[in-house]
Amino acid sequence: MLHVLSIVPSESMSSPEPSSSVQSSIPSAPCTSALVDSYTYHSPTPTAEGPYIMGVDEAGRGPVLGPMVYGVAYCPAAWKEDLEQLGFADSKTLTHETRAGLLSVLSSEPEKLGWSVRVLSPQGISSGMLRHIPTNLNQQSRDATVLLIREVIRSGLTLSEVALERDAHAVKWVDEGQEALVSAFQSAVGRDKDRCAVTKDLGIKSIGTL
């Protein structure tokens, strides 16, 4: 189930928590060595006029079988129809070659397309879950998602929509995540303050307002 958060970023939004490692030279691409440290990667910031729309997704199976990867991709809202023609789809329906080709597409229009990943290493996930006060995988997932969105906004881009998969996180992820995301996009403009409309199927059908 796809949800879209229609948002009005606040100019006075508090700074995000710093990531443990931000990489500017390590792309999200296959690597033969074991991943030990978690890291964040951002593509060059697009320069096309906004506002921007963003999609959020994740991949991975956690500390037993490898890292968890949280990704966002974004483009100008005016470019949405063009984006739909590029062939992006659920990664499970695509071949490895197609996915690799789409990664090249993401890098082919740097003035319009941007993307970021937060990669949580198995060690990092386990360390969080084994703390005296544990940080479970749902919370680590939420934190990674909010971190990516906040850092994109901090780069100077204005977001009008963020689409995320409701069923990607079990057990109250949406409830907890919405609260965190709403606080990330607090608005100081009239009745839109603290308002975050949650819609389904790319905003076609409204299912509520927080």
Structure description:
With 210 residues, this protein is of the alpha+beta class. The chain has a single domain, classed as Nucleotidyltransferase, domain 5 (2-Layer Sandwich), CATH 3.30.420.10. Helices cover 26% and strands 24% of the residues. The protein has helices spanning 80-84, 96-106, 122-129, 137-154, 173-184, and strands at residues 2-6, 22-23, 39-42, 52-59, 68-76, 114-120, 159-165, 197-200, 205-209. A 9-stranded mixed beta sheet has the order 2-3-6-5-4-7-1-8-9. β4 (52-59) and β5 (68-76) form a beta hairpin. α4 (137-154) packs parallel to α5 (173-184). The radius of gyration is 17 Å and the shape is globular. 28% of the residues are buried.
Short précis:
By secondary structure, the protein is an alpha+beta fold. Helix content is 26%, strand content 24%. The protein has 5 helices and 9 strands.
**Beta-strand content estimate:** 15-25%
**Helicity level:** 25-40%
Poorly predicted parts? 1-20, 168-177, 184-210
| Number of E-type strands | 9
Keyphrases for this structure?
disordered C terminus; globular; 26% helix; 9 strands; single chain; 210 residues; Nucleotidyltransferase, domain 5; alpha+beta; nine-stranded mixed sheet
